[in-house]
């Protein structure tokens, strides 16, 4: 043995690999560099000329890469670029588009109006950026595009998901397979967000016993910047933290809480690091409600305000848009788990745990912390997303406002819209420019202009419809035959289906998430009747279905399977088609190509719905239950509506009735109008409906109208109020908080001394007579200006929720010591049976609305 030899070698301390990022870009010749610039701003998505430019480079690759210009530029060969360099037409077109792009940005260099910071869990901007699942995301994406077009000063925040939402494929049996593909961030339109020194910006969020690090990415949408937080960072040692942002709406409730902490708390920190100091904070759905907490903490830390003072400032500048009409749909977290994660927060805002917890609860006894309640408590403006949904939201949130009647709650609405330039077919855009003027759609808010559609000859309208339908049928044949072959579908069946798809048949589309309330099954209640409808040889009809079911929603998946099975039956082949993987591109093709868009939600569960709005701009007629936007949109001779009133309490009966009504309307009205042709084979009644739809329905449902509503109803008034409370070193915020504190501590001591009500009121009153009511209240140490007394009269008969007939403020005749006399002379002027009540409310002309301060005393 050689004892002098090596005895033992220590295990080395090896460091983790250190990765530095390099990006190798393709060999694009210098002179074609504008293409690179254009590919990195999503402006191209809604500008046809830019699209055409990319398509021209290589049509085949363009289709293969699913219209992703970043991938396209990587994959096109050097030789092809050399060719393009010498292609004069191409080069001049490129410079033309590039010039337009630069001019567009230049016109948006200096923007007026308050700066809005917009927060959303998802954004649907383009299929290549998989950070959306459905309507909520598409809406947010459209909104950003419009903000850019409309020169609104807006910056947005969201999360960057490595896997995003799933891609749907169906197997032979119609079962949904959910595939999550990792996004390669170098191949999508995101880039690192850098600080002034060129360092990649990171934000930190405290989790129990550790700190989460997230990188910040930037997406350019015209002049709007969207910042996305990404937790998949090597500095996060725990795997479960790196995967926080892997999936959109995946994972469990705990992961959801972690995501929402990142979005809300981290989102505000990101904006700070980026140098933003926005005026208005818009919380799109409750997911981002922690923004209010983080901002309050900042005010406390940086300006020395107290919690209540900071809350005044934050409320004034925050607006909360709720999208969910059922209470169960609102995010909430069990109090134990919530405390585990959020325990460190209350000390930062000067609250005890139980005080903090009440920000997300309507009563002490609830065991969940509700994000919509938090958002409501920290927002002055609250709105639903259609007129009907605004009302429904009052019911959903009413527990927060005890003492107020549902009807009087300050919860408004802004009806959702869609981005015209994204969703309108190029063929229609041309017609619109021709008849509405070259300036269109910049002047889309001038509704008169849309009336020019009546000048378009029927033939021109009908040719477009035919062309778009044909384009859709070809698209489906091509793209979806491939899928069917891949899943080993019987070739005979494929041929049968493809052969039967008919570019001239009345084509009806139904595509959306397969959530139960959307009732995708409705059409299939009576298969015999349906078979009769689709197989009429003189008047054929075909239905195209698409949509994803959430991976945890078994019922939704079963429904898809059921439709796929039906579509394979001999009598339905080529008549009912289920097309897989509903995404933005497919939505566009469908909404532009079908003749009728069908929607069958259970009322009032479709908060707004937007896909039908995309249809109407393309002359696609809408046929829907009167729910969501269609309540406002439907007009006679511009689509069809299922009656609003519910006939049966039992859902099954209601479904039966609705299904039969749908079949009848289809047979008697829709099919009738479509196949009623004049000597030129044009369905004049149909083209008339199309014109009515474009003139009278479409203009109301653009994001142009929507963003203007937000500005007028929320952003501008709240900006003013927010300046009012912050000016002069937060003078008003401090005063309001002090006043509220004062009133709240005195409130329970208020004492009603006497109520004098004339006999008539308690028995029977007569119209034309006068009934003086006198109430004496001991207001203790409050001032007489602080208190108002109201008489509320409601009409009760026949409805569960009282309907307000009148709210009257009493006159304060004066106070002796602390006893004030309130008087009102009641003059009844309508016969009927009413209820009445009195209530005391704090009074202050600087309250934005009554419900801003929840103190009410009914007497
Ligand atoms: C518009 C759109 C939606 C939302 O449609 P609804 O009518 O609101 O259900 C969902 N997914 C995609 C891909 C869309 O384009």
From TrEMBL:
N6-(pyridoxal phosphate)lysine: modified positions: 614
InterPro entries, A to Z: Agluc_phsphrylas, Glyco_trans_35, Glycogen/Maltodextrin_Phosph, Glycogen_phosphorylase_DUF3417
One GO BP annotation of this record: carbohydrate metabolic process
Pfam families reported for this sequence: DUF3417, Phosphorylase
Highest taxon, organism lineage: Bacteria
GO molecular-function term, one example from the UniProt record: glycogen phosphorylase activity
Keyword Lipoprotein assigned: no
Keyword vocabulary terms for this entry: Allosteric enzyme, Pyridoxal phosphate
DUF3417 domain residues: 28-129
Reaction equation(s) it catalyzes: [(1->4)-alpha-D-glucosyl](n) + phosphate = [(1->4)-alpha-D-glucosyl](n-1) + alpha-D-glucose 1-phosphate
Similarity section: Belongs to the glycogen phosphorylase family.
Name the UniProt record assigns to this protein: Alpha-glucan family phosphorylase
Native source species: Maribellus comscasis
Gene that specifies this protein: glgP
């Amino acid at each position: 043995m050689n004892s002098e030899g090596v005895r033992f070698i220590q295990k080395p301390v090896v460091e983790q690999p250190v990765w530095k990022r390099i990006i190798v870009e393709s060999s694009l010749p210098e002179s074609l560099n504008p293409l690179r610039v254009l590919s990195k701003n999503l402006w191209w998505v809604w500008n046809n000329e830019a699209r055409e430019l990319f398509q021209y480079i290589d049509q085949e690759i363009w289709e293969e890469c699913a219209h992703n210009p970043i991938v396209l530029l990587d994959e096109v060969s050097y030789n092809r670029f050399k060719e393009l360099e010498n292609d004069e037409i191409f080069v001049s077109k490129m410079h033309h588009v590039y010039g337009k792009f630069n001019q567009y940005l230049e016109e948006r260099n200096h923007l007026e109006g308050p700066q809005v910071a917009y927060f959303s869990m998802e954004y649907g901007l383009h299929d290549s950026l998989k950070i959306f699942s459905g309507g909520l995301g598409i809406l947010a994406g459209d909104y950003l595009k419009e903000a850019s077009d409309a020169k609104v000063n807006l910056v947005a925040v969201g999360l960057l998901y490595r896997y995003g939402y799933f891609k749907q494929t169906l197997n032979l049996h119609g079962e949904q397979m959910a595939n999550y593909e990792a996004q390669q961030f170098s191949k999508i339109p995101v880039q690192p967000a850098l600080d002034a020194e060129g360092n990649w910006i990171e934000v930190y969020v405290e989790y129990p016993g550790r700190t989460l690090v997230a990188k910040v990415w930037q997406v350019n949408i015209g002049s709007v910047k969207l910042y996305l937080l990404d937790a998949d960072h090597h500095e996060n040692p725990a795997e479960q933290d790196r995967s926080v942002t892997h999936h959109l709406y995946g994972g469990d409730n705990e992961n959801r809480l972690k995501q929402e902490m990142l979005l809300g708390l981290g989102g505000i920190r990101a904006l700070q690091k980026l140098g933003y100091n926005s005026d208005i904070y818009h919380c799109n759905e409750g997911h981002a409600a922690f923004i209010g907490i983080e901002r309050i903490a900042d005010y406390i830390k940086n300006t020395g305000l107290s919690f209540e003072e900071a809350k005044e400032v934050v409320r004034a500048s925050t607006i909360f848009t709720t999208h969910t009409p059922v209470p169960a749909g609102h995010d909430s977290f069990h109090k134990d788990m919530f405390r585990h994660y959020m325990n460190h927060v209350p000390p930062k805002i000067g609250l005890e745990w139980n005080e903090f917890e009440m920000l997300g609860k309507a009563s002490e006894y609830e065991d969940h912390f509700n994000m919509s309640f938090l958002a409501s408590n920290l927002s002055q403006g609250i709105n639903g997303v259609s007129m009907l949904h605004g009302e429904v939201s009052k019911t959903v949130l009413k527990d927060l406002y005890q003492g107020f009647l549902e009807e009087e709650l300050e919860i408004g609405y802004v009806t959702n819209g869609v981005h015209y330039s994204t969703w309108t077919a190029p063929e229609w855009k041309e017609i619109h420019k021709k008849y509405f003027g070259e300036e269109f759609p910049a002047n889309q808010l001038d509704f008169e202009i849309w009336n020019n559609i009546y000048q378009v000859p029927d033939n021109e309208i009908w040719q477009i419809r035919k062309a778009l339908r044909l384009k859709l049928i070809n698209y489906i044949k091509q793209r979806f035959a491939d899928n069917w072959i891949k899943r080993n579908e019987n070739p005979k069946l494929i041929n049968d289906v493809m052969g039967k798809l008919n570019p001239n048949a009345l084509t009806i589309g139904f595509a959306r998430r397969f959530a139960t309330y959307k009732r995708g099954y409705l059409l299939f209640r009576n298969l015999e009747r349906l078979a009769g409808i689709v197989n009429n040889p003189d008047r054929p009809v075909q239905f195209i279905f698409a949509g994803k079911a959430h991976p945890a929603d078994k019922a939704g998946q079963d429904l898809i399977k059921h439709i796929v099975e039906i579509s394979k039956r001999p009598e339905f082949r080529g008549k009912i088609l289920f097309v897989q993987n509903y995404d933005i591109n497919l939505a566009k093709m469908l909404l532009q190509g079908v003749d009728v868009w069908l929607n069958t939600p259970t009322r009032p569960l479709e908060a707004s719905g937007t896909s039908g709005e995309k249809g109407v701009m393309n002359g696609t007629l809408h046929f829907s239950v009167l729910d969501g936007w269609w309540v406002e949109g439907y007009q006679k001779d511009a689509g069809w509506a299922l009656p609003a009133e519910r006939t049966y309490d039992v859902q099954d009966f209601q479904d039966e009735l609705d299904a039969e009504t749908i079949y009848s309307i289809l047979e008697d009205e829709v099919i009738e109008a479509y196949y009623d042709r004049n000597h030129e084979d044009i369905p004049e009644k149909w083209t008339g409906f199309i014109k009515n739809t474009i003139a009278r329905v479409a203009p109301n449902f653009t994001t142009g109208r929507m963003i203007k509503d937000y500005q007028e109803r929320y952003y501008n008034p709240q900006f003013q109020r927010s300046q009012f409370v912050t000016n002069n070193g937060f003078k008003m915020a401090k005063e309001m908080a002090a006043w509220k504190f004062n009133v709240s501590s005195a409130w329970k001591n208020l004492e009603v001394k006497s109520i004098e009500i004339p006999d008539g009121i308690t028995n029977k009153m007569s119209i034309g007579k006068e009934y003086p009511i006198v109430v004496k209240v001991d207001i203790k140490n409050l001032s007489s200006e602080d208190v108002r007394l109201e008489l509320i009269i409601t009409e009760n008969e026949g409805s569960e929720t009282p309907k307000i007939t009148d709210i009257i403020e009493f006159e304060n005749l004066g106070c002796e010591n602390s006893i004030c006399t309130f008087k009102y002379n009641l003059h009844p002027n309508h016969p009927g049976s009413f209820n009445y009540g009195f209530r005391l409310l704090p009074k202050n002309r600087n309250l934005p609305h009554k419900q801003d301060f929840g103190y009410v005393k009914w007497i």
